[in-house]
UniProtKB/TrEMBL annotation:
It comes from Heterocephalus glaber (Naked mole rat). SUPFAM superfamilies: ABC transporter transmembrane region, P-loop containing nucleoside triphosphate hydrolases. This is Multidrug resistance-associated protein 4. Gene3D superfamilies: ABC transporter type 1, transmembrane domain, P-loop containing nucleotide triphosphate hydrolases. Its main location: membrane. It is found in: Apical cell membrane; Basolateral cell membrane. It catalyses: tauroursodeoxycholate(in) + glutathione(in) + ATP + H2O = tauroursodeoxycholate(out) + glutathione(out) + ADP + phosphate + H(+); glycochenodeoxycholate(in) + glutathione(in) + ATP + H2O = glycochenodeoxycholate(out) + glutathione(out) + ADP + phosphate + H(+); 3',5'-cyclic AMP(in) + ATP + H2O = 3',5'-cyclic AMP(out) + ADP + phosphate + H(+); glycocholate(in) + glutathione(in) + ATP + H2O = glycocholate(out) + glutathione(out) + ADP + phosphate + H(+). Residues 576-590 have a biased composition (Polar residues).
Length: 1261
């Protein structure tokens, strides 16, 4: 549904004044709210008009469409990059001016620093002019500092917005494209891949815009700095710049390696997420088959490959960060070694000017410039992937002009169609037919005959639960039909909407909906339900994609086509309903139609009303996603680290960090000490006139070299170790979470939509693999630097401690105040992101339905609404963090001002080297302090991912898969099932779905289970498989099912499920995931179910990779694969859950025949809607509202005219009821009085010795 909002809050940025924009004051009201209470979605400001998803997406789409046309004319490949540049270059260019001003200030700052230090070096108490000049320089330095603080954040805010706009536009285009993909294109891509484009690839745009300008600013700044350094220290500066230049190719080399690893990792991640998606969607089946271990192995192996690549790229990143940490040290070392060896003397002003200049350029050259290259190359890979997706085939958009006279007809002439152009055999061959208004064309034929003409599958209800998880099959079908009728179209294509419902509802739907409501429309009904053929104006019989026969019902009867006696003796009832005299409903108003739809759903609920509603389907109301509140606890950090390494390694890592930092500071301190010693020496020399004394160069240089080497080694070691520990931790937690998910009860999956669970495995694990270790290491490095910088300043001028204390207090209060709001904003951002993905994946699954209803525009609007909601949260995330950063840098600026003016006041007590160290550290603190705080908040935000993953590592578990008590190897030999006063509920607080059920099912008995939709039929199976723990007792062959492990239980029962599930992988894996059978056994099973030919035609036979979820097989064929699985398992108990609801009579008959042949010695429970499939059962179990109402042989139940079963059979119409009663009678006598069976009291169909009702369809097929 559209995200519901109260009146959207107008965005205060629209009418904020200049000051408010610069200092982000317009956000103050939001922070006040955040301080008082938790922020909710309604507190977010509405999207700025220029940021709305529709506006941005359509703008970029326009440029892309033009580019595609131009490329066609020039016979070249279209370039998405070109379209992006054309769309955004103007606005982005203006931001370049910001960069220029900011970087210029950075270069000018050190010059004034040098002048201040100069004053100390040539300190003269009597020279007041020098003092005023020094104050002047300090003032300029202060102004520069304040200017930088403000400019930097405005620039960052705007580039991040640019990135956001590009991302939003791309998402809009990707979704728009996904709705238009052709069949062939859908085969080439998977849901996982499209979700990945939308979750990972577009995120690169958020990052790339931040750094892009440094591609030109970096080199420019380097040139300016070299010139200044040349003036300061002459030729030695070239040695330092040389090191910088050498570092660059090294870094870009690392960057290249990194992006190649990245794309390999992406492929593994894609595969892992796709498999996860299948595991989560097919979890019911996986549990019933007890296939968890097979999938655990699959995911574990994919994850292992992925992690090995992640670790490699992490080590590269570690080297990069370490090089960033030590680059400055190496550069200074090389520069001053050259300087001293060339015979110059070190002075404080030269040392610290050089240090600050190198600091400015190093940030740009070793961090921003490589980041621009790295992010740029990542973005290019992503743009390439997105471009390939945008260029996939689309379905042609025909806008049909219907004839003006309202006389619409459907006329098909020699029509041939292919599922995939690459296949030689068409799915449909040379069809011809015509349907006029008021006519109903029925299309029949076996599975795979080619009726899935327009694949309106049983209906993907994206609105109700997630994929309609809360509805039974029959309810989904009804909602679907109602949805179709609301459309009030001229032509209706109905793909077997009647198979998933029980007979009464089916008949009701057919008479009311198809015959009455649509009686003036063109209706084409694909069906397996032969009782409805009589009402059709024409019947079309298909086989293997070709038309076998076409004609009216009466023509077929005359020509001797035997639809079976089911349809022959049909009484007058149907006659009346097929010529309805009801008033036309063509121009019905909406209210009438809603009354009508209530009427249509009433019969399906009427019997359940006394007991409360449709009991089977209320068990799962979906819970809201939990937003954990408050801050991330220490426990989370502890668990996070312990998951990655032992205590010993963690302590070693801590010590390594401290050692690296101490070496870092000592190296700078040694330089300042050296400069001071040198200047004291110079003073004595001037005084005495004795020039022979020189400093011992080898001693000073040796110590300097030693400290430099120590800094480098410690720096690299701690980086690599830190990455190793954290990536390892991510691996451990992923495995724990996956294991926990596999062991979670089915209820968990009903309560949490796929998107939510998948988000943990894609986004959260992605964070833990990728961003969190990086951020964590960065934070640790920067935090230690900040602490050491403040410590050095205090050590030099102890008085600084006085202003530091109030500044620290302000900082902590500010940080707490900020985090109260920012944490909520971040969580809102995560929570508003989920619906974007859920909407995408449900749209992809319901693509045919969306197209059939022409609901593309509505879905696109919904998607845009979801995106806009996410943009609101993202916009707040960007602006709140800038609000904070501006204030932090203000604190730092005050710190710099205090040092600058404080040192001037205390000039007579200080050495130049000390002042230089304190001031240059103070300037470095500017960006660094706010970066460390930002990173600390970032680490905390990302720790939410760790928390979310940990939350899923200890979910409520099912019973263990194996207990100490194992059943004997041959168990169950009899297959006797006893229900002893069994109650069943899906959750502790949910309603009881089965009540006091007591029944005995004897060995090899065939039991049919019938009942209205939602009577508890499927719940009976859930109880048997212990998908939730039943109360009371269920015995199988004298063993209590609750006393053995779930796998021991589930492996011993075979199930043919209602919705057949295939998994990506080979056909072999789908039949036999544990390689327990020989090839011969597998081929035999496939031959039994008549799939051998189909599989042999595939290029790799049984080892051909299936499309996602086996979508290249028809439903019927998938159902046959499920039957083959059951045949292979050779279990004594078989359960069939409405398995033939979606297949045609021939496949149905094949399945029934195989079940009767192959499972003659087994106990078989069949849930059925079609009574003819279970009429020859040994017993019938009639459930109603969760209670067992009747349980006896079908013939005996039919003798009692009050019984529910009798009523059900009668609802099929007199003809079919008579036929079914006849079969029940034969079976009854054959079983109980075998001697009488052949005395002629029962009429047999002589041709094959079977009751005639079962030869339904022989001749037609």
């Amino acid at each position: 549904m559209l995200p519901m909002r109260l009146e959207p809050k107008p965005n205060p940025l629209l009418d904020a004044n200049l000051c408010s924009r610069v200092f982000f004051w317009w956000l103050n009201p939001l922070f006040k709210i955040g301080h008082k209470r938790r922020l909710e979605e309604d507190d977010m400001y509405s999207v700025l008009p220029q940021d709305s998803s529709n506006y941005l997406g359509e703008e970029l789409q326009g440029y892309w469409d033009r580019e595609v046309l131009r490329a066609e004319e020039d016979a070249r490949k279209p370039s998405l990059t070109k379209s992006i540049i054309k769309c955004y270059w103007k606005s982005y260019l203006i931001l370049g001016i910001f960069t220029l001003v900011e970087e210029s200030i950075r270069v000018i700052q050190p010059i004034f620093l040098g002048k201040i230090i100069d004053y100390f070096e040539n300190y003269d108490l009597t020279d007041s002019g020098a003092l005023y000049r020094a104050y002047g320089n300090a003032t300029v330095l202060t102004i520069c500092t304040l200017f930088l603080a403000i400019l930097h954040h405005l620039f960052f805010y705007h580039v991040q917005c640019a990135g956001m706009r590009l991302r939003v536009a791309m998402c809009h285009m990707i979704y728009r494209k996904a709705l238009r993909l052709s069949n062939v294109a859908l085969g080439k891509t998977t849901t996982g891949q499209i979700v990945n484009l939308l979750s990972n690839d577009v995120n690169k745009f958020d990052q790339v815009t931040i750094f892009l300008h440094f591609l030109w600013a970096g080199p420019l700044q380097a040139i300016a700095v070299t010139a200044l350094l040349w003036m300061e220290i002459g030729i030695s500066c070239l040695a330092g710049m040389a090191v910088l230049i050498i570092l660059l190719p090294l870094q870009s080399c690392i960057g290249k390696l990194f992006s190649s690893l990245r794309s390999k990792t992406a492929a593994f991640t894609d595969a892992r997420i796709r498999s996860m998606n299948e595991v989560i969607t097919g979890i019911r089946i996986i549990k019933m088959y007890a296939w968890e271990k097979s999938f655990a192995d699959l995911i574990t192996s994919l994850r292992r490959k992925e992690i090995s690549k992640v670790l490699r790229s992490s080590y590269l990143r570690g080297m990069n960060l370490a090089s960033f940490f030590v680059a400055n040290k190496i550069i200074l070392f090389v520069t001053f070694t050259c300087y001293v060896l060339l015979g110059h003397e070190i002075t404080a002003s030269r040392v610290f000017v050089a240090m600050t200049l190198y600091g400015a350029v190093r940030l740009t050259v070793t961090l921003f410039f490589p980041a621009a290259i790295e992010r740029g190359s990542e973005a290019i890979v992503s743009i390439q992937r997105i471009k390939n997706f945008l260029l996939l085939d689309e379905i042609s958009q025909h806008s049909l002009q219907l004839p003006a006279d309202g006389k619409t007809i459907v006329h098909v002439q020699d029509f041939t169609a292919f599922w995939d152009k690459a296949l030689e055999t068409p799915t449909l061959r040379s069809l011809s037919f015509t349907v006029r208004p008021g006519e109903l064309l029925a299309v029949v034929g076996p599975v795979g005959a080619g009726k899935d003409l327009q694949i309106l599958e049983d209906g993907d209800l994206t609105v109700i639960g997630d994929r309609g998880a809360t509805l039974s099959g029959g309810q989904k079908a009804r909602v679907n039909l109602a949805r179709a009728l609301y459309q009030d179209a001229d032509i209706y294509l109905l793909d077997d909407p009647l198979s998933a419902v029980d007979a009464e509802v089916g008949k009701h739907l057919f008479q009311l909906c198809i015959c009455q409501t649509l009686h003036e429309k063109i209706t084409i009904l694909v069906t397996h339900q032969l009782q409805y053929l009589k009402a059709a104006s024409h019947i079309l019989i298909l086989k293997d994609g070709e038309m076998v026969q076409k004609g009216t019902y009466t023509e077929f009867l005359k020509s001797g086509v035997d639809f079976g006696s089911l349809l022959k003796k049909e009484n007058e009832e149907a006659e009346q309903s097929s010529v309805p005299g009801t008033p036309t409903l063509r121009n019905r108003t909406f209210s009438e139609s809603s009354v009508w739809s209530q009427q249509s759903s009433r019969p399906s609920l009427k019997d359940g009303i006394p007991e409360g509603q449709d009991t089977e389907n209320i068990q799962v109301t979906q819970t809201e996603e939990i937003r954990s509140e408050g801050k991330v606890g220490f426990k989370a950090y502890k668990n996070y680290f312990i998951a990655g390494a032992s205590w010993f390694i963690i302590i070693f890592l801590t010590l390594l960090n401290l050692a690296a930092q101490v070496a870092y500071v000592l190296q700078d301190w040694w330089l300042s000490y050296w400069a001071d010693e040198q200047s004291m020496l110079n003073v004595t020399v001037n005084g005495e006139g004795n020039v022979t004394e020189k400093l011992d160069l080898n001693w000073y240089l040796g110590i300097y070299a030693g400290l430099t080497v120590a800094t480098v080694l410690f720096g690299i070691a701690r980086s690599l170790l830190m990455f190793y520990v954290l990536v390892n931790s991510s691996q451990t937690l992923h495995n724990k979470m996956f294991e926990s998910i596999l062991k979670a009860p089915v209820l968990f999956f009903d309560r949490n939509p796929v998107g939510r669970i998948l988000n943990r495995f894609s986004k959260d694990i992605g964070h833990m693999d990728d961003l969190l270790p990086l951020t964590f290491l960065d934070f640790t490095q920067v935090l230690l630097l900040v602490i050491s910088m403040v410590a050095v300043a205090v050590a030099v001028i102890p008085w600084i401690a006085v202003p530091i204390i109030p500044l620290a207090i302000i900082f902590f209060i500010l940080r707490r105040y900020f985090l109260e709001t920012s944490r909520d904003v971040k969580r809102l951002e995560s929570a508003t992101r989920s619906p974007v993905f859920s909407h995408l994946s449900s749209s992809l699954q319901g693509l045919w339905t969306i197209r059939a209803y022409r609901a593309e525009e509505r879905c696109q609007e919904l998607f845009d609404a979801h995106q806009d909601l996410h943009t609101e949260a993202w916009f707040l995330f960007l602006t709140t963090s800038r609000w904070f950063a501006v204030r932090l840098d203000a604190i730092c600026a005050i710190f710099v001002i205090v040092i600058a003016y404080g040192s001037l006041i205390l000039a007579h007590t200080l050495d130049a080297g000390q002042v230089g160290l304190a001031l240059s550290y103070g300037l470095m603190l500017m960006g660094m302090f706010q970066w460390s705080v930002r990173q600390s908040a970032e680490v905390e935000n990302m720790m939410i991912s760790v928390e979310r993953v940990m939350e899923y590592t200890n979910l409520e578990k099912e019973a263990p898969w194996e207990y100490q008590k194992r059943p004997p190897p041959g168990w169950p030999q009899e297959g006797v099932i006893i229900f002893d006063n069994m109650n069943f509920t899906y959750s502790l607080d949910g309603p009881v779905v089965l009540k006091h059920l007591t029944a005995l099912i004897k060995s090899t008995e065939k039991v049919g289970i019938v009942g209205r939709t939602g009577a508890g039929k499927s719940s009976l199976i859930s109880a048997l498989f212990r998908l939730s723990e039943p109360e009371g007792k269920i015995w199988i062959d004298k063993i209590l099912t609750t006393e053995i492990g779930l796998h021991d239980l589930r492996k011993k029962m075979s199930i043919i499920p209602q919705e057949p599930v295939l998994f990506t992988g080979t056909m072999r894996k789908n039949l036999d995931p544990f390689n327990e059978h020989t090839d011969e056994e597998l081929w035999n099973a496939l031959e039994e179910v008549q799939l051998k030919e189909a599989i042999e035609d595939l290029p790799g036979k049984m080892d051909t990779e299936l499309a996602e979820s086996g979508s290249n097989f028809s439903v019927g064929q998938r159902q046959l694969v499920c039957l083959a699985r059951a045949i292979l398992k050779k279990n004594r108990i078989l359960i069939i859950d409405e398995a033939t609801a979606n297949v045609d009579p021939r496949t149905d008959e094949l399945i029934q025949k195989k079940i009767r042949e192959k499972f003659a010695h087994c106990t078989v429970l069949t849930i059925a809607h079609r009574l003819n499939t279970i009429i020859d059962s040994d017993k019938i179990m009639v459930l109603d509202s969760g209670r067992l109402k009747e349980y006896d042989e079908p013939y005996i139940l039919l003798q009692n005219k009050e019984s529910l079963f009798y009523k059900m059979v009668q609802q099929l119409g007199k003809g079919e009821a008579a036929a079914l009663t006849e079969i029940a009678k034969q079976v009854y006598f054959k079983r109980n009085y075998p001697g009488i069976a052949h005395t002629g009291s029962v009429v047999m169909n002589t041709s094959n010795g079977q009751p005639s009702a079962l030869t339904i369809f022989e001749t037609a097929l």
